[in-house]
Amino acid sequence: MAILRRSRRPGVPAATLPGMAHDEPDPLRAPPALRGDHGLAWLAARQAGVASTAQAAACGLGRGAVTRRVARGSLHRVDRGVVAVGHAGLGYEGRAMAAVLARAPGAAIGLRSAWRMLGIVPPGIVVPDVIDVVVAGRNPGRGGGTVRLHRTARWLPGDVRRIGPVPVTSPARTVLDAALVEPDDVLERLVAQALRRRLTTVEQLRARALAEPGRRGTGRLLGVLADGPAFDRSVAERLTLELVRRARLAEPRLNQRIGPWEVDLLWRRERVVGEFDSYRFHQDRHAFRKDRRKLAALQLEGYRVVTVIWEDLHDHREALAALLARFVAPR
Length: 331
Description:
elongated; AbiEi_N; Endonuclease, Chain A; single chain; Type IV toxin-antitoxin system AbiEi family antitoxin domain-containing protein; 13 strands; four-stranded mixed sheet; alpha/beta
């Protein structure tokens, strides 16, 4: 069990989180007019197919009624005190919701599972099917099976949001937790993903880190933010080499010189240059003008220049490979 340590500053109890009903045993209740199986089905439809036995009891289905429905196959036990309604073929969201319900109150999806829920998994990282759940305070929840439990002393305001029905650590809190356990290169790529998806900003990340200055990992995150994580050249080079190898194209030379200019990628025989492009490399007018002069000079020398941006490397790899195949010989 991982422990996400916090500073000794007074925090905010989970029960006071805006938008998080962690002071209640369940996040949702069926309308009073809906009872029995109808009420339970209403709840499951809004909770990715699952409901807790406490919610079932609130609908008038006690322990015996649940047991009988499990025996005849209309309910399926998926976690401690949680059942799937109708069938047990849950997707990732359903399994995540079940893991949170089984450990409520004060529970949320976190760490690498939050990366997956937020859509910020860095390229090259595989998130396992195990569900990471963070519980706050003296929550007695347990891990095991496909659930990995992590404990935190408290939530701060804004630390948890909902993605659909599932409570998930916010992008800023997710990145801060990663700074505690992930290596530097993974942390930098995670920050880049969160910023690229516009789920958070550098200012928000810095403010969340400074909210707990004594917390381990805070210094590492502030260092990444100071260096500028928006586009890491070494990561871009690795992803490009993986892409051309998978497409069976000739491999480029990295960081080669053509006259006074250094280029990121060079296919010398085909006279093709690949240049990485991002806001990080063009943060001022001088850098922008220098890049334009470089492009004009390479074209005058007879080189064809292909611009490689982060979005293409991550989200449009096949299209980028097809583009390079028009200029570069097969391997």
